[in-house]
Amino acid sequence: MTVSDGGPHADGGAEATESSILSLDDGDIHVCQDGPRDAPALLLIHGSASSARSWHPMVPLLSVSHRVIRIDLLGHGRSAKPADRTYAVPDQARRVGVALDRLGVEHAVVGGHSSGGVVATALAEQRPDLVTALALINTGPSLDAFITPGSAATGPSQWPPTDDQLRRFASTGFSRAGFQIPEELLDDVRGMTSHTFTATMRATRSYLEQRALPDRLAVLGKPLLVIFGEDDRRWRSSSASDYRAVPGAKVELLPGLGHSPLLEDPPRTATPLLAFTAIHAVRVN
User: Fold this and answer.
1) Could you tell me if residue 218 is inside a domain?
2) What is the mean pLDDT of residues 136-147?
3) Maximum CA pair distance of the chain?
4) Which residues of 260-270 are buried (b: 16+ CB within 10 A; e: fewer)?
5) pLDDT digits (tens, 9 = 90+) for 83-124
6) For residue range 170-197, what is the model confidence (pLDDT) as tens digits?
7) Would 108 be classed as within a structural domain?
8) Model confidence band, residue 7 (pLDDT cutoffs 50, 70, 90)
9) Structural domains of the chain, count
10) Which helix (H) or strand (E) holds 205?
11) Is 110 inside a domain boundary?
12) CATH assignment at residue 226
């Protein structure tokens, strides 16, 4: 099923975001597309307790030169939230790969924010034919880099969460306490179930416990860009240097920005990403 949403556009015009629901074997997946369909594909994967809407401010900057594809992972956003399916990172990555196959995408640069970068890594492990390069934005390389275990950053302590709990949880995603948190991001958390919230959080932890991301990425041979808001309150920004273990990895620190630079300063975040994709994106024949 395909519908049109009023979505972001490079010139602020009326071109609509194409919004689709793909019926997979284990649940419906919501997909958004912007930009020319014959442009190089750029897949964007959101973090835990978020959705494709978290990339909304970046899309006008990226869709001029890319076919920008955003996916709501199972359990998030407008995708299904079944209680009887696995939310393990490899299974989330498999669903993303199936979705891209359904869309006819053969090659894509894959960007992930926070735990979305973990899913992006798993996708590259499973589908090296599909993923041409990786861009990770404030994705912690290992659990050792996590700043605040047991704090509000791990999520609300009850379900459904109160508005105060939601705001305390969301506040650590930004560099300063006074940042105006977009209401739709709070709605994304409200829209989850207790099961999908806890299952996806545990899945990311389990994947990182098994093997650190730089170790996984070093053997893949994929071009890697790491963007990190230097004032991240969830993951130590100094841990970004761990990714230098990946041959050829490029690491960009953004001073004054926190865990969500794609929301705090979209142009500064888009600049290194666009420079990276200009080199590594594969054009459609």
Assistant:
1) yes
2) 96
3) 51
4) bbbbbbbebbb
5) 999 999 999 999 999 999 999 999 999 999 999 999 999 999
6) 888 998 766 788 899 999 999 999 999 9
7) yes
8) low
9) 1
10) helix 194-210
11) yes
12) 3.40.50.1820
CA distance 159 to 195: 10
Taking Cα atoms as reference points, which of 37, 74, 85, 67 lies closest to residue 52? 74
Nearest to 213 by CA among 91, 113, 117: 117
Residue 285 resides in a domain: no
Instruction: Sort 186 into a burial class: Cβ within 10 Å, 0-12 / 13-18 / 19+.
Output: middle
pTM of the model: 0.92
Least confident of 12-21, 47-56, 212-221: 12-21
Q: How far apart are CA 16 and CA 82, in angstroms?
A: 29
Q: What is the DSSP string of 219-277?
A: TTT--EEEEEETT-SSB-GGGGGGGGGSTT-EEEEETT--S-HHHH-HHHHHHHHHHHH
Q: Which two tokens stand for residue 29?
A: 């997946």
Residue 130 and residue 123: Cα distance in Å, rounded? 8
Q: What's the pLDDT at 8?
A: 56
Residue span of the structural domain in which 49 resides: 2-280
Percentage of the chain modeled with pLDDT above 70: 90
Beta-carbon neighbour count of residue 276 at 10 Å? 21
Q: Which amino acid makes up residue 57?
A: P
